[in-house]
Amino acid sequence: MSTAAEEIIALELISRLENITVLNGYAFNVESVSRVNRDSTEWTPRDRAIVVSQDATQRNEEADRPGNPAAIGYTVAFRIFGFRRQSDRAATADAAKVNEMHAAIKKAVANDTDWHQFNRTSYDANWGPTTPFNSPDGRHAGLSVELTVHFRVDEDDPFTVRV
Amino acid sequence: MVYYPDGGDTGRSITAIVNRNGVEVIGETGEVHARLIEVRVRNDDTLGISSTEIDTGADEIRLPLRVGESSQRRQITEVLSTENGLVRFLIQ
User: Fold this and answer.
1) Complex ipTM above 0.95?
2) Which of A21, A103, A162, B78 is within CB 3.0–4.6 Å of B90 for a Cys-Cys bond?
3) Distance between CA atoms of residues A126 and A106, nearest Å
């Protein structure tokens, strides 16, 4: 069985985020890039951890193209959560670390002139809002970055990408 | 369980009382799940964890998520109290 278009995009997104390393010129090594299951057995919120979650896939009728079969347009939204959990004795502001991670996420994802194609699966991608967070109980600091990706597939076969 | 100061490779075995409270959504994210395990240990830097050494930004605990399962390392995320000779904290 082929891989669904959304899954190809998600795997490519994760692969790019895993390239956040000192060796690649970033200020830090990403701790992990995860998709968290409902029971959270494989993930714990360490400093520099990234979680990728996928929101609803929406129809985008304006992107439809004629043909037999027709190409049907969709938009899928991802949210990239970056966790910064400094030592209790750290002197650096959490906000400074969050800004650092924000820039690293965007540089890693938009890694080339055709970054928006996600392994020739999509025809466009756009950044959405970036929202920093700080737990009132002091557990977590970090940010979420929204990314929407637009793609087309065969009307009768969502495994067949139509760029 | 085993306590790993600063998340390093060297840990020390300690005795603890553990409440495994299932899973919660990390509120700020609205959707990312994390385990919620409450632990009580002696406030002691040999037999338990000292309230002056614990670091919620780096320290980790190795324990089984379910009784009888193999252990895995988890991050300490919040100190709940340090009274009555005990350190009570959350790991996720």
Assistant:
1) no
2) B78
3) 11
Q: Mind giving me the DSSP string for A89-116? A: T--S-HHHHHHHHHHHHHHHHS-STTGG
Q: CB distance B57–A142 less than 8 Å?
A: no
Residues of A in contact with B77 (CB under 8 A): 45, 85, 139-140
**Residues of chain B found within 8 Å of residue A44, distances taken between Cβ atoms:** 34-35, 60, 73-75, 91-92
Provide the number of structural domains found in chain B.
1
Q: List the domain range (segments joined by +) for residue B84.
A: 2-91
pLDDT in tens, A95-129: 999 999 999 999 999 999 999 999 899 999 999 99
Cβ pair B28, B82 in contact under 8 A:
no
Instruction: Look at A140 and B55 and tell me if their CB atoms are within 8 Å.
Output: no
d(CA A76, CA A56): 6
